[in-house]
Amino acid sequence: MMRPMSSASRRRAGFTLIELMLAVTLLGIVMYMTLDSLTRQQKTSIVTDQIVEVQNNVRAVASLLEREIRMAGFMVPNAVGVCGVDRTTGTDELFVSETEPFVPDAVLAGDLGARLGASSWAASTAPPASSSMPSQPGTGTAVNGILLDPATTNLDGDAFFFYDNDENGTAEADFRVGGGFILGDLSNPHRGSVCGRVTAVTATQISIRVRGGQLDAHLPTSDAPEEIVIVPAAHYWVNSTFTTGRFERNGDLLANGIDDFQISYFFDVDDDGTIDAGENPGSLGTTYTADSRDVSSLKAVNFSLVLRTRAADPNFNEGLFRAFENRSPIVGNDSFRRRVIVGGVRPRNIGNQGSI
């Protein structure tokens, strides 16, 4: 006859199969929920970090843009204060006169800049309208060996040049190779302006690649004697050879992840204190070209920057391209989160010759 098991014997017998399965199931549920929570937290952290990075980039770039647009035209002729390239199916380009190579003197004439002889530049050397200029770097109309007036190439008057272009330890010119330039007629700003990048420069001559703009023909019967001036400029654009949306200033990286960069301009051609129809090129329904634009009547410059995160978020269903000014929209969700900043700046020196 079998004797019943004592309580101690039953404890030593271990778990039943059902108890073990229940324990494993509960443990699996707890582990799944824990891992799922950790995964969600990690994704949220990554998205948050990327959004913070984008916001910081927006603030830094916008601050620099605002400062340089405000200082555009500092100590230089109105004709060469601002220039640009407008595109409706791509990012815009902006050129604003640099301030570093110029030092204020006792005569605030607003006429600093290297001079070119009439034979050094002609309307025939300029490219077609700005809107047809290519978006790739290194392209555009090349103009080589333009002679500079040696009396004006040293723009800050300190007997030393600003840039060491061949890296030999001696600065040769106040123009930077790879940097921007703006060219115009000091005496006839209504002829428009030309802008692009410097490809080579010495103390006596400069070679350039034009990105946009064109000078109207000089009319001796109605125009003042021409005085062609070229000045260093800060060139802002999105380098289209990079898939990361590389936003550059004179070839130097400012930020990655720029979806779009758009510029519009506010002119008061008739000086009536009101921006009339046709005086806001680059905005919705209008196109800006530097041809025939008298920059002396420029009152404000608007800019918009659209930045996106480095990686897409597959759980985000509102990743839509943001179109501003006259940019054509792109339809469809790409799961990227975006941040936008829009600014408007009044150049303090344009229209006020020599103002600081």
Number of domains: 1
What does the radius of gyration come to? 30 Å
Q: What's the tally of helices?
A: 2
Portion in strands: 25-35%
Bulk shape: elongated
Tally of DSSP β-strands: 13
Major beta-sheet overview: 10 strands, antiparallel
Poorly predicted residue ranges: 123-134
Q: Helicity range of the residues?
A: 10-25%
Mean pLDDT: 81
- In angstroms, what separates the terminal alpha carbons? 114 Å
Structural class: alpha+beta
**What series of H and E elements makes up the topology?**
HHEEEEEEEEEEEEE
Describe what you observe in this structure.
With 356 residues, the chain is α+β, with helices and mostly antiparallel strands. The chain has one domain. Helix content is 17%, strand content 26%. It contains two helices and 13 strands. The radius of gyration is 30 Å and the shape is elongated.
Short description:
By secondary structure, this protein is of the alpha+beta class.
Overview features:
alpha+beta; ten-stranded antiparallel beta sheet; three-stranded antiparallel beta sheet; 17% helix
Write the SSE topology:
Elements: H1 7-12, H2 17-71, E1 82-85, E2 93-97, E3 114-116, E4 141-147, E5 180-185, E6 193-201, E7 205-213, E8 228-239, E9 246-249, E10 252-255, E11 258-267, E12 298-308, E13 338-345
Antiparallel strand pairs: 1-2, 2-8, 3-8, 4-7, 5-6, 5-8, 6-7, 8-9, 9-10, 11-12, 12-13
